[in-house]
Amino acid sequence: MVDFALVALIILIAAYAGGVAAIVRLRPAGPARALLEGVGTAVGVAASFALMLALARAWLPGTIIVAALLAGAVLYGTLLRDVGPARAGATAAVGGLLIGASFLFVSYLAVMALIGAAGVYVMLRLWLRSRPALLVMGGALGALLAVSAGVFALALSTM
């Protein structure tokens, strides 16, 4: 059985990812296409979490591996256009390891923190160059992981 709060968080993070995708693609793709891409992004995020939840019931280490791989894929896709394939690959590998290690402590909140930070980066890229946006993304990821650890510790202390 999946906790209702986790399902609500997954729905919210999927809606956030879809909204960010739609906003970012609005000007280059037009309203109808941007809405379709946003819905597709939201469905993809929700399906990724569903995959991790289903895998967690069968093989927990597999969930950590899938979370790390999905994190690497998100980072690579997000950064490829701005920093090139070599740097995007290196950043994706390190980020995937970071999220995989964080997953051991804060579970699904680590993946949600990465999605939140990636959304901040993509939105900032509309107005800023890549270097300042990357710095803010790194800070946002660190802050969101710290908040995730605090929320997780609080939840465990009240059990």
Polypeptide structure, described:
The chain has helices at 4-29, 31-58, 60-83, 85-106, 108-124, 130-157. It is mostly helical and 159 residues long. It has one domain. The longest helix has 28 residues, at 31-58. The two termini are 17 Å apart. The relative contact order is 0.10. The model has no long low-confidence stretch (mean pLDDT 93).
Write the layout of secondary structure elements.
Elements: H1 4-29, H2 31-58, H3 60-83, H4 85-106, H5 108-124, H6 130-157
Keywords: Membrane, Transmembrane, Transmembrane helix
Protein name: DUF4203 domain-containing protein
Transmembrane segments: 32-51, 58-77, 97-122, 134-156
Low-confidence stretches at least 5 residues in length (pLDDT < 50)?
A: none
Number of strands: 0
| Chain-averaged pLDDT | 93
Q: How does the major sheet shape up?
A: none
Order of helices and strands: HHHHHH
Rg value:
16 Å
Which bin fits the share of residues in helices?
Answer: over 70%
Number of domains: 1
End-to-end CA span: 17 Å
β-strand percent reads: under 5%
Q: Which structural class do you get from the secondary structure elements?
A: mainly alpha
Shape assignment: globular
Tally of helical segments: 6
Transmembrane segments: 32-51, 58-77, 97-122, 134-156
Protein name: DUF4203 domain-containing protein
Organism: Dactylosporangium darangshiense
Keywords: Membrane, Transmembrane, Transmembrane helix
